Every structure is written in C-alpha cells, then in structure tokens.
Amino acid sequence: MKKLVIIGLLCLFTSIIFAQNTKPVPKPAPKPTTNNPPVANNQPAQTTPTKTKVEPIYSIFQKSDQNKLAKEKEMGKTEKQCAPELPRVKSDDVIFAKRITRDIYFADPTNRYLVPAFMDRNLVDILLKGVESFEITAYQGYNSSLNKLEEPLPDTDGALKTLIDTKVGQFTPRQYGEMDVLSKMGLRVVEDWYFDTNRSEFKPFIISIGIIYAGSKVLIGMRPDDKNLADKSIKLGESGADMDALFYVNYPTIRNYLCKFKVYHPNEKIRYSFDDVFQLRYFSSLIIEESNPEGLKITNRADLKSGLDKLLEADRIKRSLIQYEQDMWEQ
How far is CA 165 from CA 158, 170, 172, 288, in A? Predict the structure, then answer.
C-alpha cells in the first residue's frame, strides 16, 4: 500500500514539472494581403508614392506675397487698413489755412495713367463701381459756402445709371478707356492747405473729389438718347469753364476703398495705390478757385479777360502757396 502511494506522488510531481517547462507554440503570422514583396529585417516598408500638387508661380513676388497675406490674416481688422491714418491736427496749432479748388484733366498726358484701358486700374471705372455697389456714397452737389456735400445719391439699384443718362447720356464701360471721351473729363479736388506748427508741415487736406465733364451747356439741351461725350462739338473748357460735376465723393471716407486698387505704372515694380496718388500729389492740375470774399472762380472774374490771364492767375495762386511755406522757414 505504501508503495502505491509513493508511486502516485512521484507521478503527480513529475507531471507538474513538465507542465511548467512547456512553452506555448506561437501562431503563424497572417499572410500579407497586398502585392508588396516581403519586408526584410530592419528595412522600412515600401509605400505607393502620392503626387503632391504644386501651385504654379508667375512672379518673383508670389512667394513673399503669400507669406504677407498669411501674416495679415493673423492681424486685427484695424491693422489691415491699407490707408495710413491721417494726422490728428489741433486747431490751435494751425496758423494758416486756405481753401483751394483744382481740376485734374485726363487730357493732360501727365494724368493719362489715372484712366488706362485696364478697368481695374481706371479711376473713373473704380469710382463708378464703388457707387454702384454702395461701397462709397456719391453726392450730387457741393456747397462751397457751407463746405458741405449735398443731395446724396439714393441707395437704390439704377440710381447711378439714371444720373449718368440724365447728365451725359449713354456712358458705357467701353468708353472708360477711350481718350475721345476721357479727354473731356477730369476730377475736381476741393482741399484745404494748412500750416501745422506742431509738426512744422504745410500740406493739404482733401475734402472731396468729383468726376467732371465738359460741354454741360451743349448736353443739357439734348435728349438722353442723343447725349454723347464723344460729340466733336463738345470742347474742354478753359480754366474750369463749362465743366460740371457728375457727382462728388467725400475723400476721407473712401480712402480705404481707393487704397485697394493699384495705379498703372510703366515700371510694374512700383505699386502705388490711388490713395498714394492723392496723398503724394502724383498728378498735374489747374487751380480754378481760391477762397475769396466774392466766392468767384477764376473763370468768372471780370478782371481776367483772356484764357492766358486766367492761366497766369492760376499759376500765381500756386506760387503763392509755395512762397508762403518758404517764408515760414525763413522767419
């Protein structure tokens, strides 16, 4: 009996030892489902290359402009205003001020770049589109005695077309680049020249800009269908004579609109905006009025008989402004 017990214990002890030393058999690895060749040890797996879409580059400035645009998106709204803020001038610091009205004629070759054939760089087209899209407000008149823009154009569709048809007839977009029409048009700029003692600056503050056209007396008697600025009987007036405004805009309120559009320049590297043009005075103009007690324009003065006398008077006013600045520095 003892022998049977001893034999049974030995068998049980032997089975426990064999169970501990036995390792589980690993399962075979699943077969690859792709057609890729087997991967060797310590080598990266081969993947199918994907083609990256590359944007075409058309200009040497393109890369830097993209970086600039990405940076501007991170800025606040006030930082993205492209028109620099006008200086804040105190009335006590201004010791001299004079109201000046001047005309910029597109017939002058110096101003031809303001109205090129390219629509996105044509100032007349830009202003008309701004009024039509209600981005800027147009006024039908400017009261010089009150220094106030009057009769705002209604914010309704077709209001601008009705105004154009009434004053100059059919004024189609194709005419914006035709010099037989644009040579009889221009801009009227109303501005204040002032001397700021705090900054020691003698500079202008532009109040309003208006699109002007010649031959208003000729056009006023015609039917709307017969009106056409290309009519050869319409002549450019001398020193502002027979030049009426199509509409006016308040310049300080449209600067952020104008600065979005670049001016045509023979050197494409130069990227001035239309706001830069007016702030830096890149135009040729003719003074038609300075502030005076009678409120007369040069063309209406009885003491100036001929057109040459009026041109000389305009030049005298221009030189008097320059002379005043020089006299201030000599004191």
Answer: 10, 6, 10, 27
Q: Tokens representing 48?
A: 């199918």
Model confidence over 116-145: pLDDT tens digits?
A: 887 788 899 999 999 999 999 999 989 887
Does 143 map to a domain? yes
Q: Which residues contact 123 (CB under 8 A, 6 or more apart)?
A: 114, 115, 187, 274
Q: How far apart are CA 271 and CA 120, in angstroms?
A: 13
Q: Nearest to residue 250, comparing CAs of 146, 155, 127, 159?
A: 127
Give strand pairing partners of 189.
102, 209
Strand (E) or helix (H) holding 297: none
Question: In degrees rounded to 5, what are phi and psi of residue 318?
Answer: -60, -45
- The tally of domains found in the chain comes to 1
Q: What is the mean pLDDT of the chain?
A: 78
User: Structural domain of residue 139, as residue ranges?
Assistant: 86-330
In-domain check, residue 26? no
CA 167, CA 214: separation in Å to the nearest integer? 11
- Provide the token pair at 85: 């803020």
